[in-house]
UniProtKB/TrEMBL annotation:
EC number, UniProt record: 3.5.4.27
Reaction it catalyzes: 5,10-methenyl-5,6,7,8-tetrahydromethanopterin + H2O = N(5)-formyl-5,6,7,8-tetrahydromethanopterin + H(+)
Enzyme class: hydrolase
Protein family (similarity comment): Belongs to the MCH family.
MF-aspect GO terms: methenyltetrahydromethanopterin cyclohydrolase activity
InterPro entries: METHMP_CycHdrlase
Phylogenetic classification of the source organism: Bacteria, Pseudomonadati, Spirochaetota, Spirochaetia, Spirochaetales
Record's protein name: Methenyltetrahydromethanopterin cyclohydrolase
Pfam family for this entry, one: MCH
Cellular localisation: Cytoplasm
Keyword Hydrolase applies: yes
UniProt source species: Sediminispirochaeta smaragdinae (strain DSM 11293 / JCM 15392 / SEBR 4228)
One GO cellular component term noted in the UniProt record for this chain: cytoplasm
Biological role stated in the UniProt entry: Catalyzes the hydrolysis of methenyl-H(4)MPT(+) to 5-formyl-H(4)MPT.
A GO biological-process term: formaldehyde catabolic process
Length: 322
């Protein structure tokens, strides 16, 4: 069985660290030997850094490219991901399931953890939803945070994964940074495969998944940034799955999974986030989904779709004028 951490560490060592300066990133070796790569906290980061951030957090188990989102007169850049092992790449790795301690950020938003380290630690319900467990002596962790992770964070990751501190690699970016916005908007298959599992679909029957999401405009205000990236997912994403099952299995869930089937549909994410005291782990779990689903059944050749894109919600959240 492949090691998702081995693949991710290779991305960090061969593609990120050697060209950190060109990527507008900064590398820090902590006093305990762990490595932190600033990809959008104090360093500017950018488009190239974002693609590598995504590649590392899905364990190089897929492909991310830039495209265009065109819908009802709106024309925006998009981030498109193609993943052939979405169970391991997303549930076991990319999902932001690792709760980090509060770090007194001025916005009051607690940091969020993700990445291949979760596939070793399996310390959250999202990673435990799939049977995969990784075993590797090095690990990659990702932090969505306003402050660079310190020695204490690295020690927690090392202990949870049973690895030496010098073998811990942490990538970090603010939500509102360019790399931060893009990597969150890439979480299309991630959010939707969790929704499919929660609604009773047998995710072992998923062959491949892909998703496209408009890239939320970067902004220094983390609260506005959090609203923008999540609005992009809830109201702007289309995911497309290839599965191998009976048509009846798809028909049983297809109308239940898009965001327009949620009790919170039509609400602004900013309001839902405030209701959850700006803590992503307290926010209503019924928002863990995306706007639109398309599922092709390999067994029958039939395609099923449900959900809708809401350009009006995107315009409002993104601050688009004209």
């Amino acid at each position: 069985m492949f090691s998702i951490n081995q693949r991710a560490v290779r991305v960090v060592k061969e593609e990120i660290l050697p060209q950190a300066e060109e990527l507008n990133c900064r590398c820090h070796i902590l006093s305990n030997g762990a490595t932190v790569v600033d990809m959008g906290v104090d360093a500017p980061g950018g488009y190239s850094a974002a693609l590598l951030f995504i590649k590392a957090t899905i364990g190089a188990m897929g492909h991310a490219v830039y495209g265009r989102f065109r819908e009802d007169g709106l024309d925006l850049p998009s981030i498109d991901v193609y993943i052939d092992h979405p169970q391991e790449a997303c549930l076991s790795s990319q999902f932001s399931g690792w709760k980090l301690p509060a770090n007194d950020a001025p916005s009051g938003i607690n940091p969020i953890g993700s990445g291949p380290a979760r596939a070793i630690a399996r310390n959250d319900i999202f990673s435990q939803a799939w049977s995969y467990k990784d075993n590797h002596h090095e690990t990659v962790f990702a932090a969505q945070t306003q402050r660079l992770p310190d020695e204490a964070v690295a020690e927690d990751v090392a202990a949870a994964c049973g690895v030496s501190l010098e073998n811990v690699y942490i990538l970090a970016a603010r939500t509102g940074s360019l790399a931060g916005c893009i990597q969150v908007c890439s979480r299309t298959v991630e959010a939707s495969i969790w929704r499919l599992e929660r609604k009773g679909f047998d995710i072992s029957k998923i062959i491949s998944g892909m998703g496209t999401c408009p890239i939320a405009p970067p902004i220094a205000d983390e609260c506005i940034a959090m609203d923008r990236v999540n609005t992009a997912l809830l109201y702007g994403v289309t995911v497309r799955y290839v599965v191998n099952c009976k048509d009846e299995e798809i028909e049983a869930v297809i109308d239940k999974v898009p965001f327009n089937a949620s009790r919170r549909y039509g609400e602004r994410f900013a309001d839902i986030f405030e209701e959850g005291h700006r803590d992503f782990y307290l926010v209503d779990k019924d928002i863990h989904t995306v706007a639109r689903y398309e599922i092709v059944n390999y067994a029958s050749g039939n395609q099923f779709s449900a959900g809708e894109i809401r350009v009006d919600m995107l315009r409002e959240s993104f601050g688009l004028r004209g």
